[in-house]
Input
Amino acid sequence: MEPSVWIFHNIRSQEWTITGLLCSLAAGMTVGILFTQVTSLATTLGLHRGMTHQAYSLSRLLNWMFRLTLWLSVGIKWWEWCRVHAYHHQHTETELDPHSPVYKGGLSNVFRINPRLYQIAANDPQVIAATGERFVPDRWDRWLFNREGLGRTIGIGICMLVFGVIPGVVAYIVHILAYIYLNAAINSIGHGAEPTGIDSRLERQLAWISRHTGKRPGYDPRTARKKTVGNSLNSQPLAWLTMGEGLHYNHHYRQRCATMRRFTGDHDPGLYFLYILRGLRLVGTFEVPAPEPLPS
Ligand SMILES: [Zn+2]
Ligand SMILES: [Zn+2]
Output
């Protein structure tokens, strides 16, 4: 039997053998990680750069496809996400910032409870008053996409139908956890360029790395302009895992830019997909500035 046929047979057979289970787990984890990448693409190109910052226009079809993807994969309501994120930009690193590590209990706390902080901000009358008019749910939301539980149930059902029960469930769980914690990493570590002054495990780990390398990860004194960009930093490894979102310092510096790339050596994977979508006429025009050399 061909190796690929053998692996597929073991995954689909659902037999309670060690080989069958191991193949199912491996397949589920692989699919889960790919699934997270698709959702990250919908998040960064749809929710973030397109809907919140309007760096380019989205065709109605693509806007709907992104919302469908987010509904099936995590149950996010686009209008809540955009409101909270716009508010984060309006009040970066102040008491009003929905997930500033300095004001919300430190890096570890924001990492641990990021979804809860989002939900608290989404229901906050001050956030709604400041951003509610810009991001308004439509008929599709009222009838379908606002039903988060239904979206997740259909999403996991599709996974089980396509990949089998065990790989499908594993894929969905791996995906949800990876998505939650990658986004939590952007909001916590992505705002930890300088020590927050609040003792926490993540803070101590960053301090340990600084002591041994002489440099706080992602912090570059040549690009640090704390007053305009909060305590944000660039992390290329995080950017590889999040379709470019890890270049958070660049994004705060130039919020309405279609790319998160700014300096020579930065890589924004989301930008390549954006070129493809523009080629398919699913997004409007946008400018991509040439990479700047790092200031000396
Ligand atoms: Zn930020
Ligand atoms: Zn933003």
Summary: Residues 48, 52-53, 85, 89, 251, 255 surround zinc ion (ligand 2) (CB under 6 Å). The chain has one domain: 3-279.
